[in-house]
Here is the input.
Amino acid sequence: MAKSLTSQGIAEVPEETQAPEDDLAQLILTKPIHHGDEEIKVLRFREPTANDVCEVGYLFSMDTDGDIVTKPKRVLAWAVRLAGLPPSVIKQMAVSDFEKLRWRLMAFFNQSLEPDTVNQSD
Here is the structure.
């Protein structure tokens, strides 16, 4: 389990939220980051659950103009939770990789509705 993250305002990553390898999405980094002696070139994420949303909150919000707003600390919190890495590791990312991370995480929340799941009324 990751060391305590509560001092940084980020909830700890419970071990039961870790997903098996075949259930992961990934992001290839342009600049590797390090976790101890391990060099990380690819971040792997599990799919978020409703419990994650309840505990972390949605990744983005909309401002009064209808523009999507994401905050770096919220992106960090989601990356920590879904990748199972401490904030100190995620914070090593190049800004360009962090921006790709933001868009990759947003894709989890931007699934289009399937036609057969939409309640259509006459």
